[in-house]
Amino acid sequence: MFRQPPMVNTVIVQGSQNKPTSWMGFSIFVCLCCFWPIGIASIIFSVKVNTLYDDGDLEGSKRASKVALYLNVAGIVTAVVVTIIVIILVYTVFATAYNTYSTSLNTYQDLLQNN
Predict the structure, then answer these.
(1) Residue-wise over 19-36: b if at least 16 C-beta within 10 A, else e?
(2) 34, 74 contact by CB (below 8 A)
(3) CA-CA distance, 99 to 103, in Å (whole number)?
(4) What's the maximum distance between 2 C-alpha atoms anywhere in the chain?
(5) 92-115 burial, b for 16+ CB within 10 Å, e for fewer?
(6) pTM for this structure?
(7) Does residue 64 contact residue 23 with C-beta atoms inside 8 Å?
(8) What is the pLDDT of residue 103?
(9) Angle value at C-alpha 81, between 77 and 82, nearest 5 degrees
(10) 43-89 pLDDT tens trace
């Protein structure tokens, strides 16, 4: 009598490749609320994350994800810096205008009192 060897099933498990974060929501926020030129660029790279991943280019997808994140952070930083500069300029212009107006008003009142 002949006995067959027991069947052995071999399962190969490949390391799962997690899809990188696309940062799309963050990119839309930056585009609409912070600094739109950088926001548009970050939206483009966010779309590239999904496209490259679907094409099987995991490394390219990771790079696009990093670029999208860096652009989003740059958009927020740019918006904060521009806002601070505008506040300083507006305050300076209004303070200068007020001082000029106040000086002119005092001069005009002095002229009226002397006549």
Answers:
(1) ebebbbebbebbbeebbe
(2) no
(3) 6
(4) 137
(5) eeeeeeeeeeeeeeeeeeeeeeee
(6) 0.70
(7) no
(8) 77
(9) 115
(10) 999 999 999 999 999 999 999 999 999 999 999 999 999 999 999 99
